[in-house]
Amino acid sequence: MDTHSEEAVESQKHPSQPQEPGKGTTFLRTCFNGLNALSGVGMLSIPYALSQGGWLSLIILFLVAILCCYTGLLLRRCMDAKPLIKTFPDIGELAFGGKGRAMISTFMYLELFLVAVEFLILEGDNLNKLFPNTSFHIAGQKIGGKRSFVLLTALIILPTTWLRSLGLLAYVSAGGVLASLLLVASVFWAGAVDGVGFHEKGMLLNWRGIPTAISLFTFCYCGHAVFPTLCNSMKDRSQFPKVLLVCFVLSTISYGSMAVLGYLMYGENLMSQVTLNLPTRNFSSKIAIYTTLINPITKYAIVVSPIATAIEDTFPFQNSRLFSFVIRTVLVISTVFVALAIPFFGYVMAFTGAFLSITVSILFPCFCYLKIKKNSISLGLELMLIMAIIVMGFLVAVMVLCIGQDFDFFYFVQQWPGSYCDTKQSCCYPTTGKPATDFGIHGLWPNYNDGSYPSDCDPNSPYNQSKISDLISRLQKSWPTLACPSGTGSSFWSHEWVKHGTCSESILTQHGYFKSTLDLKDKLNLLQILQSAGIEPDGGFYSLNSITTAIKQAIGYTPGIECNVDESGNSQLYQIYICVDKSGSKIIQCPVLPSGRCASQIEFPSF
């Protein structure tokens, strides 16, 4: 063992010395904190993970739980090597010296910080969907949309971060655990009582979706960054292995139950968050949706606690209550700034999952344990198991990177040519002549549930017109170009494929992408739908609500309406967004609708 590393740990000041008898967090409260750390936003995505891998992927869920529980035990054994080890960075220093401390500190605190940022972004997204027109003024500045809810969430969360005692924080964690149980119960009620039913059979095994399933399963159990803090807070640290066992068993039961319920209810039609599938009109669905708003609020404080403690411990007056308030308040403010600067939940989740959580929860515990215990580990079963976990950790990280460009649904976008042409930019008819008086295809766009989208995903997959030669006549009719100068349409189709189509290659080939889009156009005659409701392209003005209602009554789902402005400043019907599942064939409820910038009365210009 590195003597220098031992001395470095011994010589450090640790205000959190081993708990005195009668002080510290009880077994039950530590269990609440541990369960709250494990049962996170993964509860929403676990049914989708099962739908990707099939029923047999439940075995993978249980294996991942066992392996992550084992790496948690490895951290506990590393802490036993020296009584003064209190934190994850201490373990890194004992194993690899100052460089080990620096690396683990960087990964761990960055992971926890970004998880806290994720919670704020998630709350902002969800609340903005429920209350889309909310805004308020601060110092004469109007703050609305997601930004207003991020700030509101931060104000609600702030007092929970002032609780330095994990014993007191356990009461907040108990609320988080209760919210997770209520979420499972609400989903069960929706299936058993509210008419959704459990009729889907699902697939036994889907090899193609296994990487996605493994990645999501692993992310559900990445709570290791807070484990040393929980262990050090206990009255009796020797009971921490039992805490880990209780937390992993109960969280696995919750995850497994939610996965099975969701898959039986919606099968292959599951979206990335099960609450997006639930019928919003039902009371149980509303309970489930509102419960998802509680979870991030209850988990934020336990996530940032190690960061706040580490900052406080670097100053000589760390026991000052006022100083603690200031540090923790500044920490919350910093996460707010980052949440507002990086508004898309998907980007943060992908980076956190691939580069940080898996490294902190799987790879670092194994590396540190092998180094610290190198003189006592024989070439036996334990060494083989640890090496296998390391290999699995690297593979999962690669899998997450590989699926990082995946998406949740398509926007099928049609545009009205009259509105395109009735602007200052004007338009040019294609070389084949003036298009028919009908909505034309703009594109089929992969999207994420948070409103962000992938683009230009595969530079090695250029547009090749020979692959769609049998579709050219249909493309010229239904997907015409109106850009100047006049063209055949091939440059327009090439642009759509390169920017959007390449991001759906895991599901649709180039031919399949264009054919699916054309088939959707044939299925959705938007002009006929509007005309049947008395809405004609005659230059008249119609209410935005009447247009939305007419389409919703025809297809069963609310469309997105986008407007542009003509030379006179009138708001006019420009594009209509219909949401489609990842297969590119089934119309679904939109997880998020685009901001259409429409007036209450909009013009439907002639063409």
CATH fold-level assignment of the largest domain = Amino acid/polyamine transporter I
Instruction: State Rg.
Output: 27 Å
Distance between the termini: 80 Å
Ranges where pLDDT stays below 50 over 5 or more residues in a row are 1-18
Per CATH, the class of the largest domain reads Mainly Alpha
Strand content: 5-15%
- How many β-strands, per DSSP? 8
Sequence of strands across the biggest β-sheet: 4-3-7-6
What structural class do the secondary elements suggest? alpha+beta
Mean pLDDT: 84
Task: Give a topology summary.
Blueprint: H1 3-11, H2 27-38, H3 42-53, H4 57-80, H5 88-130, E1 135-138, E2 141-144, H6 145-161, H7 166-192, H8 210-220, H9 227-233, H10 240-266, H11 283-313, H12 321-341, H13 345-372, H14 381-402, E3 409-415, H15 417-421, E4 440-447, H16 472-478, H17 490-499, H18 510-523, H19 526-532, E5 541-543, H20 544-555, E6 560-565, E7 571-580, E8 601-603
Antiparallel strand pairs: 1-2, 3-4, 3-7, 5-8, 6-7
Helix pairs in contact: 1-5, 2-7, 2-10, 3-8, 3-10, 4-8, 4-10, 4-13, 5-6, 5-11, 5-12, 5-13, 6-11, 6-12, 7-10, 7-11, 8-14, 11-12, 13-14, 19-20
